Amino acid sequence: MKKQTKIFLVLGILLLIALAFFYPRLGNQGPGNAPESSGQKGGNGGEPLAVNVIKLKMETLNNQLQVSGTILPNESVDIKPEISGLVTKVNFKEGQYVTKGTPILYLNDNELQAQYQRLQYTQKLFQTQESRQKQLLAREAISQEEYDIVLNQYNTALSDIKLVQAQLEKTVIRAPFNGRLGLRQVSEGAVINASNIIVSIVNIDPIKLEFSIPERYAGMVTEGSPIFFSSESSKEEVEGKVYAYEPQVDAATRTIKLRAQSPNKSGKYLPGMFVKIRFVLEVKEDALLVPAEAVIPELSGYKVFVVGADGNAEQRMIEIGTRTDTQVQVLSGLAEGDLVLITGVMQVRKGMPIKPTPVN
């Protein structure tokens, strides 16, 4: 009897558990609780998904890069003497603007001046002898060999004078080009040689700008390509033009180095400054452009969502062209006037009801 009671008790417990588990599910199958339809629904409990859209129109595509660069001087050099000597006069002021050929420093030339004077006397002597021997040779009073010896002495004296003149010119150090001098590194009375820097000279009108671009844009680089740059000290954009570039790609960085030139009449741009450069690669008229965030990459290509004729989301496969940092050129798959979704592109599905809001 006890065994039967236990069996009935266990069966009763199992029956209660079964009723507790299945009864709620049976109740949910009533007329007011039909299963959710397998069709698409909106983003908020069946409501249409609110999205922003843009209306496509033909635009001008400015394909450009944003890169950083450095300002270089047009010309720059540390001025040094060619010969050793004693500084007798410093003929410039620090920061002074000088023109090409302006004397900036004098070295002691006493010995060279003495040599030059002595050679002048020797040259006059040989010149007189040569003239006299030439007359004698004309009357056949001397041989051709005797005349040639005197002529050689005269020509040698002339060469010695030119040599001393060249050495005398080296005692006057001159500006090699137009530019502004830097800080003086020597004083009068100092003995200097070819390793000593006297002063630096810099020409900064025009300035040069050096920068690099990725190798994939190598085919778009031409001499005369425009650039626009600005510095930390001035947000104003100034135009320049590319005048040269390296004919090879840097294997370490996979970039090409370019140089551009720009006027600098005011002198506010100095060598060594960091600049932000906007490099215009090409300009295309009548291009269809969509924001980069609207384009969804797939294995088979790229797609976007547009507002269909029925007001629901419609998927379009597109072919893309040039990319900029914010926009993508569409070559096929879209037409002018299409409404392209730019928000909600990850939530929307084909045929889903949407509530578009134009933003342009």
Strand order of the largest sheet: 2-11-14-13-12-15
Helix tally? 3
User: Which residue ranges are poorly predicted, with pLDDT under 50 across at least 5 consecutive positions?
Assistant: 24-39
Strand content: 35-45%
CATH architecture annotation name of the largest domain: Orthogonal Bundle
| Alpha-carbon distance between the two ends | 86 Å
Classify the secondary structure makeup into a structural class: alpha+beta
Q: N-to-C SSE series?
A: HEEEEEEHHEEEEEEEEEEEEEEE
| β-strand number | 21
Level-1 CATH class name of the largest domain? Mainly Alpha
| Helix share, percent | 10-25%
Give a brief description.
This protein is an alpha+beta fold and 360 residues long. It is built from three helices and 21 strands.
Structure description:
With 360 residues, this protein is an alpha+beta fold. The protein is 22% helix and 38% strand. The protein has three domains: 49-60 and 285-358, conserved putative lor/sdh protein from methanococcus maripaludis s2 fold (Beta Barrel), CATH 2.40.420; 66-75 and 204-283, Efflux pump adaptor protein, beta barrel domain (Elongation Factor Tu (Ef-tu), domain 3), CATH 2.40.30; 80-201, Helix Hairpins (Orthogonal Bundle). The protein has helices spanning 2-27, 110-138, 144-169; strands spanning 49-55, 58-72, 75-79, 85-90, 97-98, 103-107, 172-174, 179-181, 191-192, 199-203, 207-214, 226-231, 238-245, 255-262, 274-291, 296-298, 301-307, 313-323, 327-332, 339-341, 354-358. Strands 2-11-14-13-12-15 form a six-stranded antiparallel β-barrel. Strands 3-10-8-5 form a four-stranded antiparallel beta sheet, with no helix packed on it. The longest helix has 29 residues, at 110-138. The model is unreliable at 24-39 (pLDDT under 50).
